[in-house]
Design brief:
Radius of gyration: 15 Å
Number of domains: 1
CATH topology: Aminopeptidase
Oligomer: single chain
CATH class: Alpha Beta
CATH architecture: 3-Layer(aba) Sandwich
Largest sheet: 7 strands, mixed
Distance between the termini: 32 Å
Shape: globular
Helix content: 25-40%
Number of strands: 7
CATH superfamily: Gcn5-related N-acetyltransferase (GNAT)
Strand order of the largest sheet: 1-2-3-4-5-7-6
Length: about 150
């Protein structure tokens, strides 16, 4: 499978919102209760920033989006959202490993937070992330480059 990314545009808003809703519905319902479409629309709209987002393409077709922040002391994966129909195909692993190579070159850790009920925790652990803390709603994870 050929995985690529491209800069997001304003025209990606509706697709990205549909991916967000499809990917998060199960997690939100397990962790917080009934899905509220209007509330989730608001959450998505508040976070959507096409200037800081890349669309994820698998074999040329959009399948998700992500936001990765290169900060001075670390790399922060703010979002990694893949449509459920495209999950479990190695796309997330490929992207995470690409960020790991970048972090190794800079000798900085990668940090992320994910919902307590997110199945993606297993993926993060498989590629070497470890839990470093928890909040009431999130697992905070880090990946450290080898010295």
């Amino acid at each position: 499978m050929n995985v690529q990314t491209r800069a997001a545009t304003d025209e990606d808003f509706a697709f990205a919102r549909s991916v967000h809703h499809a990917a998060y519905r199960d997690v939100v319902e397990r962790q917080f209760g009934p899905w509220d479409e209007a509330q989730q629309d608001t959450f998505f709209e508040q976070d959507w920033n096409p200037q800081a987002t890349e669309m994820i393409l698998a074999d040329g077709s959009a399948c998700g989006y992500w936001m990765v922040e290169d900060r001075e002391v670390d790399i922060h994966i703010r979002e990694l959202v893949i449509h459920p129909r495209c999950q479990s195909r190695g796309i997330g692993r490929y992207l995470l490993e690409s960020v790991q190579r970048r972090a190794q070159g800079r000798r900085v850790p990668i940090r992320l937070g994910t919902y307590l009920e997110n199945r993606a925790v297993a993926l993060y652990e498989r590629v070497g992330f470890v839990e470093v803390d928890r909040t009431d709603t999130h697992i905070l994870m880090e990946w450290f480059t080898s010295p």
